[in-house]
Each structure stands twice: as C-alpha cells, then as structure tokens.
Amino acid sequence: MKQLDLFSPLQIGDLTLPNRIIMAPLTRCRAGAGVAPTALNALYYQQRASAGLIISEATPIMPEGHGYPDTPGIYTDQQLAGWRLVTDAVHEAGGRIFAQLWHVGRISHPVFQPHQQLPVAPSAIAAPGNVMTPTGKEPLPVPRALETAEIPGIVEQYATATRNAQQAGFDGVEIHGAHGYLIDAFLRDSANQRTDRYGGSLENRLRFMSEVVEAVVGAWSAERVGIRFSPFVDQKGADSDPLALFTAATKRVASFGLAYLHLREAKTKPDPATAVLRSHFSGVLMVNDLYTKERGNEAILSGRADCVAYGVPFIANPDLPRRFQLDSPLNEADRATFYGGGAAGYTDYPALSPSTFMEQ
Ligand SMILES: Cc1cc2nc3c(=O)[nH]c(=O)nc-3n(C[C@H](O)[C@H](O)[C@H](O)COP(=O)(O)O)c2cc1C
Fold first, then answer.
1. Which pLDDT tens digit goes with each residue over 236-290?
2. Residues tagged active-site
3. Which spans in the chain are helix H?
4. Which domains does the chain have, with CATH numbers?
5. b/e sequence 64-101, b meaning 16+ C-beta within 10 Å
6. How far is the centre of ligand 1, averaged over its atoms, from the C-alpha of 150 (Å)?
7. Which ligand 1 atom is at minimum distance from the Cα of 179?
8. pTM reported for the whole predicted model
C-alpha cells in the first residue's frame, strides 16, 4: 500500500479532497466597496484552486467584528454577491472553499467600529500590543465588556453568517477560534475575568465557544464545520494553563463531531499541544505554521496530522501543490504587499505554466 503523504486524497466530512495541501486563511485587506469581495479577489482564489481545500481570509460576521481595513464581511447582500464571485470562480477551477468566520473582539479600534464605538470583549482589559490605524500605530484600546444579555445576539450572528456562507456557495465554514480574537479571548483567563456564566471556571470560559459551535453546526451540519485554535500563540492574550484549556476545548468541539480541528502551532517546534489534542479529536487534524513540503509529508506519514495548511507559500505560489509535486523552486513572497493594495503581490505571482491551476 502506498504510504500517505501530501498528495493522498482526504475525506473531510462528506467532502473528498484530492490532496492534503490546504490553503491557510490569509487576510489580504483588498475588499471593495461595502467591504465586499471583488472580481480581483475571485481571481486570486481561483488561481489557488488546486489546494485540497481553501480556507478563506477571515470574514467578519457583523460590523463590530472588524479590526483591520478592507476586510470582506459576510453580513450584507452586497458582500454575499461578492463572495458568490469567489466561490463560483473556485468551483469552476475544480476547487473547494470554506469561509473563516471572524469576530475580532478587542483586537480592534474605534476607527474600525460602527459609530466609532469601543470594540467589545469579555472584559474591559486591553490586549497587549498595537493596532495599525489609518493614522498610524496605537496601543490596542481598553474594550467595552459585553453585557451578558448581548452575548446570545452575537452567537446568533455566527449562525446567520453560516447560513450566509452556505447561500454564497461556500463548501463549509471554519470558526476562527485563534489568535486572541473574540472566541479565543473568552477562552483565556487573562482576557476573560467575567463573573457571570461566561467567565471564571474553565467550564464557564468554554461556554461562549460552545454556544457558537452549537449555533454554527445547527445552521449547517457538523460535517461542514471546522475550528481553528492557536493554543501556544499568545501575543494577543495568554492563559495560565493553555494545554489544560485547549484539551478541554478540543474535547468540547469533538463532542459536536466537527469535521476538522485546525491547529496553528507554536513557533518552538514541536508544538507540545498537537499530539495531546489529536488524542482527544477523532476528526481530521490540520496543522500549520512554517511547514515545508518535507515537514508536511513527515507530519502525515508519521500520523501526527492528516493535512497541512500553508499560508505564506500559497501567497507567493498559486500552484503550490504542483510545485511540491515537481519539486520546483518556490517564488519568494513579498511581505510589503501582504496587507492592502491591488493586483501587485496578489494575483501576479507566476504559476509554472498558464494552465497549471486547471490541472489536478
Ligand atoms: C498576510 C497574512 C494574513 C493572515 N491572515 C489570517 C487570517 O485571516 N486568519 C487566520 O486564522 N490566520 C491568518 N494568518 C496566519 C496564517 O493562516 C498562518 O497561520 C501563518 O501564515 C503561518 O503559516 P505559514 O508558515 O505556512 O505561512 C495570516 C498570515 C499572514 C502572513
């Protein structure tokens, strides 16, 4: 029997992926009017359709979910029409795409908020670090703590965004539970110091995430839902015991039968959480951060993971699977054009041949 590697097909829920090379979610700050996706965005994703699965850039589920300029939302008709351009383009090229559902929570600034209001969060505690505003870098602000009675409305927005994603032609959704944004902030004890049923004990800190997962699964089907965690990435808010926290969070999402768990691993390798969390999750495990072809194949062959998400390599190489297959050199990514701008550094990275993305 052929050993498993990046080029082996993979079943995620009821979808069959032709390979295990996943395009990681990548915010590129290039939405058009009404923060809706454009034809340029559709072309960018279409060029990358040979990925086993594309996970879209994080898409805010509501106006308060924004924390960066020109990030495409998933809550207006105009945005859904824009996403339809993207999903049609990806499907035409034979690909599959999930929407990454996002609420930034306290990683924002009044300039990105409706009526210049304060961003919302579990507690009125600023995240460490800065935010880039149109007028320059500023410390992340002290957010407004959500009232208990407001929380069900946000959970409901996740369900609405899920239905919107389905309507816009996505193949599924990934819940963004990583990187200090709203769900991650509810989980971590440095960010969540609430005294109601959403804070304090571990069980209470899991509640917001659990309600979101339940709502999203209810709006579609667990087979079409994944979640992303980043247990040891804590620049935007730490936890006193991340392994215990994310073990409990993983057991919880496993109980909903989610199709996959996506781990953004620690910079210091190997990540201490990956093997532990895998043992508590029977669905597909996706790993990410600084993988090469060799490390990706090794992760799959050894059984550490089922598939590997690539971020920066997909920015610079629209035909990454083909390049891996042929052991072709990779294009270098231009960091200056990661966030914002037009086609330069976005849709102009060359493929090996003009028709490469149509193959597979
Ligand atoms: C330009 C850029 C934008 C990103 N945007 C997102 C995002 O929207 N959602 C997310 O979960 N991670 C985001 N990330 C993190 C990537 O998904 C990925 O974890 C990171 O690039 C590490 O993988 P790599 O070493 O293969 O690039 C972003 C990273 C970069 C470089």
1. 999 999 999 999 999 999 999 999 999 999 988 888 899 999 999 999 999 999 9
2. 181
3. 39-47, 77-92, 151-167, 182-187, 202-219, 242-255, 274-278, 293-301, 312-316, 320-326
4. 10-358 (3.20.20.70)
5. bbbbbbebbbbbeeebbebbbbbbebbeebebbbbbbb
6. 30
7. 11
8. 0.97
